[in-house]
């Protein structure tokens, strides 16, 4: 896209590489531009020869074909802008195909995660059934020995570990649309260490949970919500501003393009475009741009100031290409027209992708309710089996089931909380987006456990667990 804009403004291929050295937000091409410039100016090689050599060394087929076609177009004397526009059109077609394939891969990953959760549910059921070992012994029957340590390892180590593996796989398949989210993760890590240590002490130390005014499931739910709440609020503020900026930047570039067609200078075109009032939260950045231009600050410096405040890679790249096009001059109207078309099409791709992935959020809540309700049903059924055999054993069975349900309730809530990060990654491309989902899923799991135990206990006329 950048090569197309530079070709449209009349910049030579080699000068295009030299200008790419300024674009630090494109680290790969900055490194490539440095190498091409070094080969030409230090080694004295021909720029086109260097481009062919770089194409032979790269592992990317798309990049190799691009360089080969670029050199062929220059050497044959063809119109470089036409070749670049046709190449750009082909890239968009490939991106559409790639988006469809990536969504299919994500759908397969979600299905695999659903199977994993079914396995988790089966494991919970087995542990609940076999946890009645002491009741079987009282009945004088052979029992299946099952160590409580295995149940704890399965609920608090094995199941979360499997979810983390799926999160890492999703991380490699889906990239975050926002940059520089390390501050959110850093604060969340501090909360995890502090609150996680407190929750571990409450669960692990005998007798601590008994003196608390609320149950251990309530404490864990509150603790996990406390971990997620502040990062979720911070990410919500960031996403609200940056998503609005992504929605607004194509219209902003289009406005600048149309203003330049009417004969206004680039700076006046930008100032004119910032005066629109329907940009939402993006208007605060446009007001800053307007004030800096009116104070005589260069466009590139204005871009650097805005770049520090905007985290959306899409907005940063589009704004940078607009500034680069205006600074070059030449036939900038044609270049801006190309940029407007590009930003509008790219935005449509992003919106379509997000809409297609959004239904998986609902699926996560279905998982949470299903695991909680099914585990409760199995636990109560196991208890009812003992009451059929002997009413004198019902109190012993109830005490045993209550202890097991406390532990498994915590495991279910923790599992649903971790699932929120998986859903955030596949739906929005960012693990930070999972904080809001994790908090909601933890609450959903807790409410499902409480309601299912209360309703089923009322149906079978027995004490609630």
- Shape descriptor reads elongated
How large is the count of helical segments? 18
Mean pLDDT: 79
Largest sheet: none
Give start-end ranges of low-pLDDT stretches: 133-146
User: What is the string of SSEs from the N terminus onward?
Assistant: HHHHHHHHHHHHHHHHHH
Q: Helix fraction?
A: over 70%
Number of DSSP strands?
Answer: 0
Oligomer: single chain
> Hey, roughly how much beta strand do the residues contain?
under 5%
Distance between the termini: 62 Å
Structural class: mainly alpha
Radius of gyration: 30 Å
Description of the structure:
With 465 residues, the protein is mostly helical. The protein has a domain at 2-78. It has 18 helices and no strands. Helix 1 (2-8) crosses helix 2, helix 4 runs antiparallel to helix 5 (61-75) and helix 8 packs parallel to helix 17 (394-428). The longest helix is centred in the N-terminal third of the chain and has 51 residues, at 80-130. The protein is elongated. The N and C termini lie far apart (62 Å). The model is unreliable at 133-146 (pLDDT under 50).
List the helices and strands and how they pair.
Layout: H1 2-8, H2 13-20, H3 27-41, H4 47-57, H5 61-75, H6 80-130, H7 133-138, H8 148-173, H9 182-204, H10 216-261, H11 266-274, H12 283-294, H13 299-307, H14 313-328, H15 332-357, H16 360-389, H17 394-428, H18 434-459
Helix pairs in contact: 1-2, 1-6, 1-15, 2-3, 3-4, 4-5, 5-6, 6-8, 6-15, 6-16, 8-17, 9-10, 10-11, 10-14, 10-15, 10-17, 10-18, 11-12, 12-13, 13-14, 14-15, 16-17, 16-18, 17-18
């Amino acid at each position: 896209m950048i090569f197309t804009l530079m070709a449209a403004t009349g910049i030579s291929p080699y000068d295009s590489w030299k200008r790419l050295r300024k674009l630090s937000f494109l680290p790969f091409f900055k490194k490539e531009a440095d190498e091409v410039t070094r080969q030409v100016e230090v080694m004295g090689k021909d720029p086109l020869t260097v481009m062919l050599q770089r194409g032979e060394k790269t592992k990317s087929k798309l990049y190799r074909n691009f360089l080969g076609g670029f050199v062929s177009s220059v050497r044959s004397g063809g119109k470089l802008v036409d070749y670049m526009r046709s190449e750009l059109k082909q890239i968009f077609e490939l991106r559409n195909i790639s988006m469809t394939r990536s969504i299919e891969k994500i759908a397969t990953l979600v299905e695999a995660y659903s199977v994993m959760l079914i396995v988790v549910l089966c494991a919970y059921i087995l542990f609940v059934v076999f946890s009645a070992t002491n009741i079987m012994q009282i009945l004088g029957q052979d029992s299946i020995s099952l160590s409580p340590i295995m149940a704890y390892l399965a609920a608090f180590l094995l199941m979360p570990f499997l979810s983390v593996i799926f999160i890492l796989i999703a991380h490699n398949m889906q990239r975050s649309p926002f940059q520089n989210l390390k501050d959110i993760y850093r604060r969340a890590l501090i909360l995890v260490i502090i609150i996680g240590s407190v929750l571990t002490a409450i669960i692990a130390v005998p007798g601590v949970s008994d003196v608390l005014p609320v149950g251990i499931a309530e404490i864990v739910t509150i603790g996990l919500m406390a971990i997620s709440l502040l990062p979720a609020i911070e990410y919500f503020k960031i996403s609200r501003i940056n998503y609005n900026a992504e929605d607004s930047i194509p219209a902003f570039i289009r406005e600048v393009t149309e203003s330049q067609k009417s004969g206004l200078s680039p700076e006046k075109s930008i100032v004119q475009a910032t005066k629109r009032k329907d940009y939402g939260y993006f208007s605060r950045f446009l007001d800053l741009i307007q004030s800096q231009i009116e104070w005589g600050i260069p466009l590139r410096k204005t871009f650097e100031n805005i770049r520090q405040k905007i985290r959306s890679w899409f907005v940063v790249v589009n704004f940078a290409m607009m500034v680069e096009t205006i600074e070059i001059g030449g036939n900038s109207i044609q270049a801006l027209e190309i940029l407007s078309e590009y930003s509008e099409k790219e935005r449509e791709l992003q919106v379509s992708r997000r809409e297609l992935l959004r239904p998986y959020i609902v699926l996560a809540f279905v998982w949470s309710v299903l695991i909680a309700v099914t585990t409760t049903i199995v636990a109560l059924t196991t208890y009812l089996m003992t009451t059929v055999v002997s009413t004198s054993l019902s109190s012993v069975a109830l005490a045993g089931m209550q202890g097991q349900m406390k532990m498994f309730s915590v495991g279910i809530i923790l599992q649903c909380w971790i699932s929120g990060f998986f859903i955030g990654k596949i739906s929005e491309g960012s693990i930070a987006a999972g904080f809001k989902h994790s908090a909601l899923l933890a609450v959903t799991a807790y409410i499902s456990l409480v309601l299912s135990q209360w309703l089923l206990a009322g149906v079978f006329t027995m004490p609630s667990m």
